[in-house]
Amino acid sequence: MLKLSVIGTGYLGATHAACMAELGFTVVGVDVDQNKIEQLSIGNVPFYEPGLDELLKKQITAGLLSFSADFSAIKDCDVHFICVGTPQSKTGNAADLSFVNSALEKVAKFAKPGSLVVGKSTVPVGTAARLRSQLKQINPDVELAWNPEFLREGFAVEDTLNPNRLVVGVIDDKSEQVLKQVYSKNLAAGIPWIRADLPTAELVKVAANSFLATKISFINAMAEICEAADGDVTVLAKAIGYDPRIGNKFLQAGIGFGGGCLPKDIRAFMARAEELGAQQALEFLKEIDAINLRARQRVIELVRKDLSNDLKSKKIAVLGAAFKPDSDDVRDSPALDIAEQIRSAGANVTVHDPKAISNAQKRFPNLNFESEIEKTISGADLVLHLTEWKIYRELDPAKLKSIVKTAIMIDGRNALDQDKWRAAGWKFRALGRVAK
Ligand code: UDX
User: Fold this and answer.
1) For residues 345 and 336, what is the distance between their CA atoms, to the nearest angstrom?
2) Which of 165, 243, 260, 272 is within CB 3.0–4.6 Å of 124 for a Cys-Cys bond?
3) Which residues are CB-neighbours of 362 under 8 A, at least 6 positions away?
4) pLDDT tens-digit profile of 89-118?
5) Beta-carbon-side half-sphere exposure of residue 374 (alpha carbons within 13 Å)
6) Which of 140, 161, 196 is at the close of a domain?
7) By the 8 A CB rule, do 82 and 116 touch?
């Protein structure tokens, strides 16, 4: 049985490490963050991801999974997965590759001859080839492959154990055979296997995320048109989604995409295309980004309209802080961006979220946070629904009407039942739908 190492134990790495142990491999997860390693070693996942806690504890107890802050722990491993982050750089649109570069250096130092380094992080095309030549200079007997990850937060365990496809960018047959051993259970289950070269494997990931971002911004553009023409974008989305060539997924109009992937990936893709002299091909992504950011402003406009353009000392309740439900991730969260903009315009904003309050508080210390929905909403002049957690759909609008000052609900996710809220006496607004 192969021994695996996973470098970087964030959302991607911690999930990958636990899932590879679940597939039966001995896995060591390595990270420079001592605190994270200590937490993971005792079975605590330092973020919220459904099902991961149980899996981690199970595999640590089974003796298959361990964690270390000492990179020499990888020296007996046959395969090393690089799962570190590639955030947007502080100075522009490009990806910050410093974590990938330093991970590669450390792996190169300790990897045993004949082992395989496998990049999973999302990187600008051409990075894998550059890393490979750096690796070869330090450790000529180690090979490099690229195997992008497509997991969605909130479904990370499921997506890693049962991916909808496996893409491997390889230089030679030997690397492909090693990866086929790693994923033998997935292959036996019939999961499609795509062999590619290094640049194509890198591109698959950013192309997929660009397509998803485009779908979301497309429906948000239609929402703008519906607003102008008194149409209903939710009905429109349902109707076009029945065409199997279009499909009904990722057509949920609202305040748009956020998180640690889609926004920074489309920007890094544009930056890389420019370096390659192919910027014209991705000009449209600028518009995708602009439509996405405009959705946040459109919600703020609705708030202004409903409060007669006077936000000063108005009490606004915000339901949701995470960038999407079933996650405590607040990176580039549209909900928090909107909450903060409304606060800086003078409103008194209180935010509720079932899981993301502690992360949100660190980034937005000037917002108020509440762990109880009733307390969040009590006395509010207006309520904003900005992350579509299931608990918000189950709220009783009649009960809540008695505790707000003015019963105005703006649904930024088109996820609440507008008839139910209106029947309970609420003034109900949503993006891309007729105001009644
Ligand atoms: C995404 C990709 O889906 C995943 O394959 C990739 O590996 C990483 O990036 P993730 O960031 O977890 O995953 O979130 P995703 O479920 O894609 O949602 C992204 C954002 O789009 C969220 O803010 C979500 O609220 C928003 N969204 C999604 C919409 O606004 N409308 C939709 O119809 C779908």
Assistant:
1) 14
2) 272
3) none
4) 999 999 999 999 999 999 999 999 999 999
5) 5
6) 196
7) no
Same domain, 172 and 213: no
In this structure, are 166 and 143 located in the same domain? yes
pLDDT of the residue at 434: 81
CA distances for 326 relative to 49, 89, 239, 251, angstroms: 7, 27, 27, 19
**Which of 122, 299, 324 for a ligand 1 pocket mutation test, highest count of atoms within 8 Å of Cβ?**
324
The closest alpha carbon to 323, from 413, 404, 201, belongs to 413
Strand partners, 225: none
Query: Rg for the chain (alpha carbons), in Å?
Result: 23
Q: How many domains does the chain have?
A: 2
| Strands lying side by side in the sheet with 427-430 | 368-370, 348-352, 315-319, 382-385, 408-411, 427-430
Please indicate, yes or no, whether residues 144 and 230 belong to a single structural domain of this protein. Answer: no
* Ligand 1 contact via 152 beta carbon (within 6 Å): yes
CATH code of 169's domain? 3.40.50.720
CA–CA gap between residue 38 and residue 100 (Å, rounded): 22
In a shared domain, residues 12 and 142: yes
CB-CB contact of 57 with 63 (8 Å)? no
| pLDDT computed for residue 280 by the predictor | 98
Return the active site residues: 261
pLDDT at residue number 352:
98
pTM: 0.96
**Same domain for 215 and 318:** yes
Residue 183 domain boundaries: 3-196
- Name which residue sits closest to atom 34 of ligand 1, judged by CA: 250
Ligand 1 atom nearest 333 alpha carbon:
23
320: closest CA among 303, 342, 337? 337
Beta pairing, strands 143-146 & 79-82: unpaired
How far from chain centre, in Å, is Cα 273? 23
Q: In angstroms, rounded to a whole number, what is the distance separating the alpha carbons of residues 329 and 348?
A: 24
**Residues of the chain falling short of pLDDT 50:** none
Q: Is 277 in the same domain as 411?
A: yes
